Amino acid sequence: MGNPPELYYKILNIPKDTSPQEIRAAYKNLVKKWHPDKHPPSSKPEAEARFKAISEAYEALLDQQENRAVFGLCNDGRAGERGAGGAFCGGGGGGGLGAGVGARMERTRSDDFCTRSAPGTPAREFKKVYSSGNSGGRRAFAEFSSSIMRKAPPLERKLECTLEELCRGGKKEVKFTRDVVTKNGSIVKKEVSQTVTVKPGWKKGKQVVFEGMGDERPGCLPADAIFTVSEKKHLTFKRVGNDLVLKAEVPLVSALTGWSFSFRLLSGKKVSLAFQDEVICPGYEKVIGGEGMPIPEHKGARGDLRVKFEIVFPKELTDEQRAGLAEILKGSC
């Protein structure tokens, strides 16, 4: 019974028809990436597990390639020996004996070749035990493959950010508690902290992943810690995509006779708007280009600031005021 090659191809992230040269190249790239000495203590357990899995997969696939070559040679030899045996038996009628000798010769040649071409290594010995039909070997491989493929469920948390932080960017320290497996196999709680570099323009729903920094479980790879950006409500602005929306309430008299006001953007920049020669109508919107949120995909680009005006009408008027307004506004529409 052979090892399941699908597992090894999946570990090395290569298709099944990969050549030996491509297998070797994939192996070299992965061991460089996951060598434990290149990882900090926080991700070292995961790196060690992956490094071991990559090495096992590489050696197993090499064995598979060697075996194909061996079987091809043995089949060629077997065909030649059978031909020789058949010719000999045809002369003396000892076909059964000749075939038996031929078979023994084939097995001897095959075994010797395999011994020479596949020297003993931990991975090859592991495969030998498993392939022999030993139940302990099968169980060991099952545990090994399961531990490679399984990862503890992710530890998920929110990363609350203000609009100012999402606009300007910056660093935020996050603290969380994770389960850690001790040397004796017990699970303890450990408080850890990580630094998140918030990039200008990030949106809610953006995920920050710390690989291997989640909960640990015996027999599993350490889980990832995933922080999902959430946006705190702002008192002045509302974000709509890459744009910022500002609602401004304008008294009716100011909307009709002229109005000016000022405010500060998320960056701290002061902006003033004046409406002296125009009437502000209900639903009017003024767009200030390039004063919205940064757009991460396009360096230097920003959304727009949209100022929406809401006209505040008086709740009641006296008869005299009504008459005066009627006289003033007569013929203006």
From TrEMBL:
Q: List, alphabetically, the Pfam families matched.
A: DnaJ (PF00226), DnaJ_C (PF01556)
Checking SMART domains in the record gives: DnaJ
Look up the record and report any one GO term of the cellular component aspect.
endoplasmic reticulum
Domain J intervals: 7-75
Instruction: Give the residue spans that cross the bilayer.
Output: none
Presence of keyword Chaperone? yes
The record's InterPro entries line, in alphabetical order, gives: DnaJ_C (IPR002939), DnaJ_domain (IPR001623), DnaJ_subfamily_B (IPR051339), HSP40/DnaJ_pept-bd (IPR008971), J_dom_sf (IPR036869)
- UniProt entry keywords in alphabetical sequence: Chaperone
PANTHER family from the UniProt entry: DNAJ CHAPERONE C-TERMINAL DOMAIN-CONTAINING PROTEIN, DNAJ HOMOLOG SUBFAMILY C MEMBER
Q: What is this protein called?
A: J domain-containing protein
